[in-house]
Fold:
Amino acid sequence: NAGVTQTPKFRILKIGQSMTLQCTQDMNHNYMYWYRQDPGMGLKLIYYSVGAGITDKGEVPNGYNVSRSTTEDFPLRLELAAPSQTSVYFCASSAGHPSNQPQHFGDGTRLSIL
Amino acid sequence: AQSVTQPDIHITVSEGASLELRCNYSYGATPYLFWYVQSPGQGLQLLLKYFSGDTLVQGIKGFEAEFKRSQSSFNLRKPSVHWSDAAEYFCAVGGAGGTSYGKLTFGQGTILTVHP
Structure:
């Protein structure tokens, strides 16, 4: 049972490069989320989606873009990588509203911008 | 705006000792409260959740949490800690309406170290 799968697990980028963090889930969940985790800061919501074709900004969306063309996939795009985007990124999904459905997390992508 | 504070960044306990991790929240209506655990190199796993009803909530791995509205707290407890409980613990608050719809706010996390 795969759950939420994130690729890659690790990546080093140079300043100004772009990349896409992949996230896919096999639980047919409508809700999907992208968080970043910085030491001592907990998790900050970047973007979320309540279904295919619908996305919305979270707390820290600047410098990122998302799309949701299918229920399964929710990629996160960094267009011009900056050192401030060095972080651990987590994708999550839930069957419904997070107030009454648990979020299932992937194992994260560790991204370093040098 | 909703917020969560976990006052303790790092807690160390001996194996077999009791544990309490503190969580204070700010939310304008009835909150939905969660505790998640994160082992090194892993994503977060849900321990327990509170939506309504009984203020003492039981979770997995022998954990429980008590919702105290008057204190805006949702502290996590375990009567006897095992070495495998060493991890980072996150409290989170969410809501069903307004600008918080669909979003959870996480605390900064508490790192638990267990001594043998």
Notes: Chain B has a mean pLDDT of 90.
